[in-house]
Design brief:
The protein has helices spanning about 5-20, 25-45, 50-70, 75-90, 95-105, 130-145, 155-160, 175-185, 190-225, 230-265, 280-285, 290-305, 310-330, 330-350, 355, 360-385, 385-395, 410, 415-435, 435-440, 445-460. The protein is an all-alpha fold and about 475 residues long. It has two domains: about 5-185, no CATH class; about 190-474, no CATH class. Helix 3 (about 50-70) packs parallel to helix 6, helix 12 packs across helix 13 and helix 14 (about 330-350) packs antiparallel against helix 16. It is a multi-pass membrane protein. Keywords: Acyltransferase, Cell membrane, Membrane, Transferase, Transmembrane, Transmembrane helix. It is found in: Cell membrane. This is Probable poly(Beta-D-mannuronate) O-acetylase (EC).
């Protein structure tokens, strides 16, 4: 079920009609939340509901066992991790694993054909599986480390795990941030309703007007191998994709946060204007924050972080970034995307170039451009359909071929308009952050009402071709 669909509009109205009545009493509240969340997920494919139930029951039980049997808590943690990683391996990575084994076997003259014998269900990637399994794993890891007391209330736990606003594409919320909220009787003020609606409207604008209008040129360029090799053309395409994926995912997160706020709950922000970053490390503190902090807390730091010899810090960073790439999918392009970021982060840490550039005003502008170029080039590997295509596009980006440059405005005027709008939106937020007077001037109901009306009008009259959210596939 897509947020930007008529079906969801009906779902949204029905849910809040029932929720207004149900939230006043504990049992009704949990039944309402769980039933609607399971319906929301089942709308995609009801057969995979068992995965959420399986993951949840295993981790709910394992956490309670850690509390009642502290001497065996390591065993229960391993059981939890194996169950969750096993689900991912079967439903998300089995195709990749089987094809890799088949390819290696062929090198030794063996024809195992494991891939052709995979059961059909393992070839379908359940929507949102990487999000809810990571969310569930973080719960048992925190209980194991003593950072969290396990909840005795199974309804609270499943509400935390399966709450529909964030179920299929995040943000990945932590139990320590959510369980206490779920245990309380949350009152929603008129201000919170307004803020929730504002977040949702902005999220729909990000997705429907910005991301969906940039998608056609990106899709066309990556599907058609005969597109022009012009340097300027491919910079336009890659900037379009950079903003498409950002506004697509940030739009989903904004809608999810808005829905949660209408229910009386608070999700942490998942994006903080990543294209304002002036170092790659700064970029990763702003991009997909719930996932990057998950990898920091549960992979990078447990590996040792920056403790010990310098080479270990680089090793830990490379492992973390490669796993981050694999999280997106079992494909070479995602692994290469992670490797490109790891390489650029290594150079940044080794040379400390941001520190030198940040010492003077012009240097900060140069740092911004350097980070943007690195991120855009890395996105080539993320979006490309093959390694050969990625290398070819990177070659175009840094070529001196300006063929057809003078025709770009004429041929791709619509794309340039929406790309310019996307850049302007981010520029506006930069100005608001940098100028206190502007920030204060826009903090009033008149500005809010006008901007809401403007965004709604844009969603109605300038929406792009409807499409799934990009991160649904992960």
């Amino acid at each position: 079920m897509l947020f930007n669909s008529l079906v969801f509009l009906v779902f949204f109205v029905l849910f809040f009609l029932v929720w207004t009545w149900a939230k006043k009493e504990d049992l009704r509240r949990w039944v309402c939340m769980l039933v609607f969340s399971f319906v929301f997920y089942a709308w995609w494919d009801w057969r995979f509901l068992f995965l959420i139930l399986f993951s949840g029951l295993v981790d709910y039980g394992a956490a309670l066992k850690m509390q009642s049997q502290p001497a065996q808590k390591r065993f229960w943690l391993i059981a939890s991790l194996l169950a969750n990683i096993g689900s991912l391996a079967i439903f998300k990575y089995s195709k990749f694993i089987a094809q890799t084994i088949d390819a290696l076997a062929l090198e030794f003259g063996l024809e195992w054909e494991l891939y052709s014998h995979l059961p059909a269900f393992s070839l379908i990637v359940p929507v949102g599986i990487s999000f809810y399994t990571f969310q569930s794993m973080s719960y048992t890891i925190d209980v194991y480390k003593g950072k969290l007391r396990p909840t005795q209330n199974i309804a609270h736990f499943f509400a935390y795990l399966s709450m529909f606003p964030q179920l299929v594409a995040g943000p990945i919320i932590r139990a320590k941030d959510m369980l206490q909220q779920l245990a309380e009787d949350r009152r929603v003020s008129a201000v919170e309703v307004w803020l929730g609606l504002r977040l949702m409207v902005y999220g729909f604008f990000q997705k429907m007007v910005l991301a969906d209008n940039l998608a056609p040129i990106v899709n066309q360029s990556f599907w058609d191998n005969n597109t022009q090799p012009s340097c300027m053309y491919w910079w336009m395409v890659m900037l379009a994709f950079s903003f498409q994926i950002y506004f697509d995912f940030a739009g989903y997160s904004s809608i999810a946060r808005g829905l949660a706020k209408l229910m009386g709950y608070r999700f942490k922000s998942n994006f903080n204007h990543p294209y304002h970053a002036i170092s790659l490390r700064d970029f990763w503190s702003r991009w997909h924050i719930s996932l990057s902090t998950w990898f920091r807390d549960y992979v990078y730091i447990p590996l040792g972080g920056t403790r010990g010899a310098k080479w270990k810090g680089y090793r830990n960073m490379w492992i973390t970034m490669l796993i981050s790439g694999l999280w997106h999918g079992p494909a070479l392009n995602f692994i290469l995307w992670g490797a490109v970021h790891a390489a650029c982060l290594s150079v940044e840490r080794l040379t400390k170039w941001p520190t030198y550039l940040h010492q003077f005003r012009a240097g900060r502008g140069l740092a911004f451009l350097l980070v943007l170029v690195q991120v855009v080039v890395a996105w080539v590997f993320f979006r490309a359909t093959s390694f050969e295509q990625a290398i070819r596009i990177v070659g175009h980006l840094f070529s001196t071929n300006l063929e057809g440059t003078h025709l770009i405005v004429e041929r791709y005027f619509d794309t340039l308009v929406f790309l310019g709008l996307a850049i302007s939106v981010e520029g506006w937020y930069y100005l608001k952050r940098s100028h206190k007077r502007l920030r204060l001037a826009t903090k009033n109901i008149v500005y809010d009402s006008f901007s809401m009306a403007l965004l709604i009008t844009a969603c109605v009259y300038f929406r792009g071709p409807a499409s799934e959210f990009i991160y649904f596939q992960f």
